[in-house]
């Protein structure tokens, strides 16, 4: 047992170093967090104003949204629904927002109380979301968004 004690100490030290390195990667400076927070506010504003042009710049070409019903929507589908008026968002507030930055990638999680309609049907719900953003040509773009309905 005494022979294993030094090995245990080495393993514990190595795992502590690993945790410290992973933790450092997730830290973000105030400037980057502010940029991502601003992106999140602009996204909600673009949906509320049905601004398909702004959304077109904010969403990466290969963007995919996985809605809380499990259906996947790509960028052209989202933009067409906004432009045609099929998707109408009245409110998209974000709460409990957490931003983690890894170089030019940001993971944004939070809770949103969506109020809106799709093709005339009410889609209002409270959901948790995860957005994956990348910094491309100096601007943040969303490449993936996942929504999970929260039971009321």
Question: If you had to describe this structure to a student in words, what would you say it looks like?
Answer:
By secondary structure, this protein is of the alpha+beta class. It has a single domain (29-149), classed as Nuclear Transport Factor 2, Chain: A (Roll), CATH 3.10.450.50. It has four helices and eight strands, in the order H-H-H-E-E-H-E-E-E-E-E-E. It has helices at 4-26, 30-48, 52-58, 75-84; strands spanning 59-66, 72-74, 87-91, 94-102, 105-118, 121-122, 125-136, 139-149. Strands 1, 2, 3, 4, 5, 6, 7 and 8 form an eight-stranded mixed β-sheet that branches. Strand 1 and strand 2 (72-74) form a beta hairpin. Residues 1-25 have low confidence and may be disordered.
Form type: globular
Q: Can you give the helix content as a percent range?
A: 25-40%
Structural class by SSE content: alpha+beta
Unreliable spans: 1-25
What is the highest CATH level, the class?
A: Alpha Beta
CATH architecture designation: Roll
- Mean pLDDT, nearest integer? 85
Secondary-structure element string: HHHEEHEEEEEE
Tally of helical segments: 4
Provide the fold topology.
Blueprint: H1 4-26, H2 30-48, H3 52-58, E1 59-66, E2 72-74, H4 75-84, E3 87-91, E4 94-102, E5 105-118, E6 121-122, E7 125-136, E8 139-149
